[in-house]
Amino acid sequence: MNAAELVKVLAKKLQLSQSEVSKRIDDTIAIIAGELTAGNSVSFSSLGTLETKKRDERISVNPATGQRMLVPPRIVAKFKPANGVKERLKNMEA
Question: pTM here?
Fold first, then answer.
């Protein structure tokens, strides 16, 4: 599902215009991004937790040339699914 499909489904379910739903989704994403930027985690009890982690610097090798290079440390967003989501995924057929 892409963003346009999500907006369409939510607009129908909430009986709102697609532009209103799109604005609300954009506002929600801005709030979540702000919290992550501030170093806070964001939890949804039925979905999971978004949090930031520091990825340490490491040495990477270019497979084409064999050249080694240092990749600097950086902050990345991580998602940890809730137990209910893990169970639903575990019970899916491959």
Answer: 0.77
Helices (H) and strands (E) in the chain, counts: 3, 5
Per residue in 25-40, pLDDT (tens digit) is 999 999 999 999 999 9
Domain ranges of the chain: 3-90
Handedness of CA 20, 25, 29, 34 (dihedral sign): positive
- The CATH architecture to which 3-90 belongs is Irregular (4.10)
> What own/partner pairs with CB < 8 Å and gap ≥ 24 does 83-91 have?
84/46, 85/46, 85/47, 85/48
Return all residues near 5 (Cβ < 8 A) that are at least 6 apart: none
